[in-house]
Amino acid sequence: MEWQLRQEMVSIGKRIDDRRLVAATDGNISARLHGGRILMTPSGIALGSLRPQDLVIIDHAGRLLSGTLKKSSEFRLHLMIYEERRDVVAVVHAHPPIANAFTFAGVPLDPCIVPEVVATLGSIPTTDYGTPATDEGANVARTLIANHDAIMLQRHGSVTVGPTLLSAYQKLEKLEHTAEVLLAAHQLGGPKKLSKDEILKLARLREDLGIGCGVEVLRACGLDE
Ligand SMILES: [Zn+2]
């Protein structure tokens, strides 16, 4: 089981690298194991070049339990998420360039434009800025990740979570694709928002399908009063 998870993590690392959702040795992936242990990609190796035996295991306090390589400097971010979200089994942190550009420009990844994103991810909010790889960098994400499966860390990168590695990875793909589409829409004169009625229907659909909270969507679109 653990070996299978290691192989899956390696294959997802390769997909992230192939799609240029990270540069050089950026980004990291983790998954929850039994007994509060976390399997995680190590520091210093490109996600596309990993082997299953390169992955490390840390405990809830960030202590290295197994592995010959150094743990990632972003381990605090991953541990904070597992502490905050009991339902999360996998965490993917990447540096998707277009979504990142939105945070550098201070332009939100508007939640009220792409219907499938409204229904599935709800919204993709951006955290305040915090120095990466520190407690501050992890803690700025705490409130948002408690209620969202896909968020942007301001001037840093994305965090996507899910009940499986594949689900956390696919949310990253979706997030960057949304940013690409929105960028194109901005170049074509600016994206147009969905109407209030359509957002209400999507919020209801999100609840009916058991995907997540509809009120959160309404709040993000300014329709919760
Ligand atoms: Zn990073």
Search tags:
single chain; 225 residues; alpha+beta; L-fuculose-1-phosphate Aldolase; seven-stranded antiparallel beta sheet; 9 helices; 43% helix; globular; binds zinc ion
In short, what is this structure?
The protein is α+β, with helices and mostly antiparallel strands and 225 residues long. Helix content is 43%, strand content 13%.
User: Which strand order do you get reading across the main beta sheet?
Assistant: 4-3-2-1-5-7-6
The largest pleated sheet is described as: 7 strands, antiparallel
CATH superfamily: Class II aldolase/adducin N-terminal domain
Instruction: Return the structural class.
Output: alpha+beta
Task: Output the CATH class name.
Answer: Alpha Beta
Relative helix content: 40-55%
Written account of the structure:
With 225 residues, the protein is α+β, with helices and mostly antiparallel strands. The chain has a single domain (2-190), classed as Class II aldolase/adducin N-terminal domain (L-fuculose-1-phosphate Aldolase). It is built from 9 helices and 7 strands; from the N terminus they run H-E-E-E-E-H-E-H-H-H-H-E-E-H-H-H. It has helices spanning 2-18, 75-84, 97-105, 115-120, 135-139, 142-147, 165-187, 196-208, 214-220; strands at residues 28-32, 38-40, 56-58, 64-66, 90-94, 150-153, 157-162. Strands 4-3-2-1-5-7-6 form a 7-stranded antiparallel β-sheet, sandwiched between helices. A hairpin with a 5-residue loop joins strand 1 (28-32) and strand 2 (38-40). Helix 3 packs across helix 7 (165-187). The termini are far apart. 41% of the residues are buried.
